[in-house]
Specification:
The chain is of the alpha/beta class. The protein has helices at about 20-30, 40-50, 65-70, 90-95, 110-120; strands at about 1-10, 30-40, 55-60, 80-85, 100-105. It has a single domain, classed as Rossmann fold, CATH 3.40.50.
């Protein structure tokens, strides 16, 4: 488990009390120690700029991704971005223009698998 990487999960429709959300957090905690969940994009964008020591990986829902990526992509502490979306093909084309986006994923298990390499590189 990596303690030098923080995961930010931004989703304006997230319900932290749902079984699905708790399951997702459990899966992510097998990889990283700290997960911060945001429903407000402004708070999410402020977090990496205030956090100077750790590298930040961002999971972002499809409804917020284009707006937030343009605001946060150049933040030095932000290491990688993963888009969580049911509409994978709808986001893949524009995501190619942003080098920190490593992919568009439809399942959390795929996100967890995709996280392994960037997190190892952060160590």
């Amino acid at each position: 488990m990596n303690q030098n990487v923080l995961v930010i999960w931004l989703d304006n429709k997230i319900d932290e009390n749902s079984a699905d959300c708790r399951s997702t957090i459990t899966q992510l905690r097998c990889i990283v120690n700290t997960i911060n969940i945001y429903i407000d994009s402004d708070q999410c964008v402020d977090f990496p700029t205030d956090n100077y020591r750790e590298k930040v990986c961002l999971i972002i829902s499809d409804t917020l991704c284009q707006k937030v990526v343009t605001l946060i992509h150049d933040v030095r502490q932000l290491y990688t971005i993963l888009i969580f979306s049911e509409n994978k093909t709808g986001h893949e084309q524009w995501a190619k223009d942003w080098f920190k986006i490593i992919g568009v994923f439809t399942y959390i298990s795929l996100i967890c698998e995709a996280f392994k390499q960037p997190i190892q590189q952060c160590e």
